[in-house]
Amino acid sequence: MNPFEQAEVLLQEIEEQVLTNAQDAEAFRIKYIGSKGLLKDLFAAMKDIPNERKKEFGQLVNELKQRAESKVNEAKISSAKASTKKSFEDLSAPGVPYVVGTRHPINIVKNEMVEIFKRLGFVVEDGPEIEDDWHNFTALNLPENHPARDMQDTFYIDFNANRLLRTHTSSAQIRVMEKQKPPIRIITPGRVYRNETISARAHCTFHQVEGLYIDKNVSFADLKQTLYYFAKEMFGSDNIRMRPSYFPFTEPSAEIDISCFICNQTGCSVCKHSGWVEIGGCGMVDPAVLENVGIDSEEYTGFAFGMGIERITMLKYGINDIRLFFENDMRFLQQFS
Ligand code: DAH
Predict the structure, then answer these.
(1) pLDDT for residue 84
(2) CA 227 to centroid of ligand 1, rounded, Å
(3) Who lines ligand 1 at CB under 6 A?
(4) Fewest CB atoms within 10 Å of the CB: 85, 126, 127, 178?
(5) Share above pLDDT 70 across residues of the chain, in percent, rounded to a whole number
(6) Number of Cβ atoms within 10 Å of the Cβ of 225
(7) Which residues, including other chains, have CB under 8 Å from residue 45's CB and lie 6 or more apart?
(8) 281 Cα: distance to centroid of ligand 1 (angstroms)
(9) What is the mean pLDDT of residues 294-318?
(10) Residue 197's domain is classified under what CATH number?
């Protein structure tokens, strides 16, 4: 076969090939127009063609090359189209609903509390959940063997290594006062742990927001006004009362009660039929605590409070079982979207 005949045969062959997918197209490309393909031999044959026919031969081989190239391109385009089609089979089908998560009610209320206290100039601070005896107890005026330690059943991680799960966010007060000089105006929201029997009213893990204000001439009146402002902003009513109480780290101390919004003070299980629900404790920081962290108690005074976020959330939303917060039941959580 002379090169003209070879070219004719190849052209025929190329026209007859059916390329159904991308692999076929690639094999075809390598065979005919690849760097070692059959067309290469034809181009090489050019040198043996008599001069007067070189032009004719050149055109023939070029046509062959163009045909082969366009066949490869067509095959690649149609196989790409076919694979796109597969992933969007029915463009008119209704969409799959996209489930949007919701914030946990504890987080919603925590954020709200933070916003309220921020408006009064409090800044957010943080402390570790794994604490030592000094920050959780001793510095807060609860030395070893102090009977008030029994008020909070503690989870010890390692008693001898002095590691425990904090029983209250008051430990964060100590950490802040150790590193910062007055004036101090902070809140520390966070999780706390107590070895309590789980019931509708109590859980072994819950959340508190601790507040601390240390400056010159801070008085009990400042504390009261702060709590009134909080209650008004949070519940739309400042119907709270303060009952004299005892905490080792405050003197005087009080318990903060808010009127029961669940039964409107007619009596229910949440308020133990008293019409009032305790939401936290508060008081004037005991001078001994200030001295423990190197703050001059002659020069500075301060107030502190600690409130349970679960309790406040239950009141705000009329939830009657604290365990609901920890079960992650979607039917419960989605009500807060
Ligand atoms: N730490 C107390 C508790 O968990 C609550 C508390 C009471 C915090 C009085 C305070 C405070 O800052 O002044 O029971």
Answers:
(1) 66
(2) 14
(3) 168, 170, 210, 247, 250, 280-283, 304-306
(4) 85
(5) 98
(6) 13
(7) 3, 6
(8) 5
(9) 95
(10) 3.30.930.10
